[in-house]
């Protein structure tokens, strides 16, 4: 069957389709990219680490040979086995929920999305594992049903094999469509390759999405639901070449990260700035850093980027600034060059301790969810507002080329290492004007008003849009918990004489 049998998608009318049903393929159709390797690589790295990514990369040549010279089904089965075998299904679902939507949304094809979004009923028929794509398609594209490859499981783990009828390509796609629709024919079918023809012939209108590498992706602002929360360690989509670079760089990057962490932890704070620059870490300072206040300390309220926020604040000021944190891992606390006051949700805030710290000098707080609508953060902001009027907002921006320095799902003790493993990471610290007295609690403003004003000022500086989402919202969406680092009970061992 020739590809000219079906017209191209740009010939499909998108007006007046509100009552129509569309069935679309995914790779090469809804998405610009025709390869699903980067998304398998994301799952492999986020769940299994660099060794699983290496295994997938080594298996990819075999997958390619089978895909192009034997059958699409065999090639995709190799990718599924290499990426998923032995993984907990819950871990795959977690990555599908927290990591993949951002990367999928950045590759949406404008012509097929125009048709797909105009229809009242939306179905996706894909060779990709359903568990990997369903969250994005339903939550962010408004898809009514996803028909994808079902992976085999055993005791909650993926076997690496697929369930009957196998990978959904060619005839299997057509059979899945018949099973879903019966004798009814959907109005529109969208595909991009000859193996999509069997299901396209079952639609009233069939259209082909021609390869156009130069076409620009749909902007995320046009999605039915914006992607606000994102997790994951990788900054860029892991294509085969990028995956190879990541694997080769990690041993070098880890050694470099250890050197950078040692420099920040062991050297006097006034020279850490220069040591970081010598080791490839750029620290950019904007605004006017306030000098130490003699009577009582300055409270720096920073936008949260990573656990390293107070470290780079101290680096920019040239003096160590103690930090009050919501929760932090024990490892991060040990290697920190500054004093950290770790206040978990279950602990009572000690006003006298905070007051003592402010009397001794400056203090930093980097809350997640600076609207402070959570009960804990409300008490947090109210307490500080009552203790000092020396409030200085600080806008933090970090720049990374390979790894994100924060995670909601993984072990937060590795956050500093991942940040410093970037070839040339950067932190931009912008000191804003100190809050005037008339905008503090002592002038009659409520803690809500003060906290939200600070949020608006920081957001305007960073060109961010303020939301009412809190730290709990983020962690529940990405990790299924409230983000508290659980402390292990200390067991006292009796020494026998």
From TrEMBL:
<keyword id="KW-0812">Transmembrane</keyword>
<dbReference type="InterPro" id="IPR036412">
    <property type="entry name" value="HAD-like_sf"/>
</dbReference>
<dbReference type="Pfam" id="PF01553">
    <property type="entry name" value="Acyltransferase"/>
</dbReference>
<feature type="transmembrane region" description="Helical">
    <location>
        <begin position="39"/>
        <end position="59"/>
    </location>
</feature>
<dbReference type="InterPro" id="IPR056462">
    <property type="entry name" value="HAD_RAM2/GPAT1-8"/>
</dbReference>
<dbReference type="InterPro" id="IPR023214">
    <property type="entry name" value="HAD_sf"/>
</dbReference>
<keyword id="KW-1133">Transmembrane helix</keyword>
<feature type="domain" description="Phospholipid/glycerol acyltransferase">
    <location>
        <begin position="298"/>
        <end position="399"/>
    </location>
</feature>
<keyword id="KW-0808">Transferase</keyword>
<dbReference type="Pfam" id="PF23270">
    <property type="entry name" value="HAD_RAM2_N"/>
</dbReference>
<feature type="transmembrane region" description="Helical">
    <location>
        <begin position="65"/>
        <end position="87"/>
    </location>
</feature>
<comment type="similarity">
    <text>Belongs to the GPAT/DAPAT family.</text>
</comment>
<keyword id="KW-0472">Membrane</keyword>
<protein>
    <submittedName>
        <fullName>CAAX geranylgeranyltransferase alpha subunit</fullName>
    </submittedName>
</protein>
<dbReference type="InterPro" id="IPR002123">
    <property type="entry name" value="Plipid/glycerol_acylTrfase"/>
</dbReference>
<keyword id="KW-0012">Acyltransferase</keyword>
<feature type="transmembrane region" description="Helical">
    <location>
        <begin position="241"/>
        <end position="263"/>
    </location>
</feature>
